[in-house]
Amino acid sequence: HEVVKEVFKGNKETAKEMFLKNFQAPGHVPILVGRSLKVRKGHTELSLALAKLAKLLPSTVIVEMLDKGISLCVSKAAKIAESLRTVLIEGNELIEALGDLDV
User: How many angstroms separate the CA atoms of 51 and 63, rounded?
Assistant: First the structure.
């Protein structure tokens, strides 16, 4: 990252200015505990269901995509997914695909 490069060059003030100019929202990595989809259909539960469906350990990392401090709309998220050559799965699509499976 460019900010880190500036720090290593000894340009701490430049790095600080770059960081403050580009940083948009506070980041954090909380530990989330999910419940069954029968109890709650939130992002955490959906990510765990997807992992279980893929026969992976139910341990995931999720992010919230923001746009000027508010949640990014689905159409913009879809464009980002396309540019990254990945897929965008909406919660209702996953719930429908799971049917009656209790994952």
Answer: 15
